[in-house]
UniProtKB/TrEMBL annotation:
<dbReference type="GO" id="GO:0003677">
    <property type="term" value="F:DNA binding"/>
</dbReference>
<dbReference type="InterPro" id="IPR009061">
    <property type="entry name" value="DNA-bd_dom_put_sf"/>
</dbReference>
<dbReference type="Pfam" id="PF12728">
    <property type="entry name" value="HTH_17"/>
</dbReference>
<feature type="region of interest" description="Disordered">
    <location>
        <begin position="1"/>
        <end position="22"/>
    </location>
</feature>
<dbReference type="InterPro" id="IPR041657">
    <property type="entry name" value="HTH_17"/>
</dbReference>
<feature type="domain" description="Helix-turn-helix">
    <location>
        <begin position="31"/>
        <end position="79"/>
    </location>
</feature>
<keyword id="KW-0238">DNA-binding</keyword>
<protein>
    <submittedName>
        <fullName>DNA-binding protein</fullName>
    </submittedName>
</protein>
Length: 88
């Protein structure tokens, strides 16, 4: 059984929140929901991209899949560059 704080967070959630509070912005870790919102897509699309090997780099930390903010920004720039080269 997971320990839950008075705020209703598990200890794991508290640690992730603390980690994201102290990391530089470019290295903050994002959950699937945060990543989907940032990329203006859905969590199910993120899962599909992961399954077919598309989308930004991610990694598993325990049972949770996470994305680094710097990897998200790099992937967006790669998509932009690839599409602007095709259009030229």
């Amino acid at each position: 059984m997971k320990e839950v704080s008075t705020l209703g967070e598990t200890l794991e959630q508290q640690q992730l929140r603390r980690d994201s509070d102290i990391r530089p912005v470019q290295d903050q870790l994002r959950t699937i929901e945060e990543t989907a919102e940032y990329l203006r897509t859905t969590p199910s699309t993120m899962r599909y991209w992961q399954q077919i090997g598309k989308g930004p780099k991610s990694f598993k930390l325990g049972v949770r899949r996470l994305w680094k903010q710097s990897d998200l920004d790099a992937w967006i720039n790669e998509q932009y560059e690839a599409q602007t080269r095709e259009a030229a």
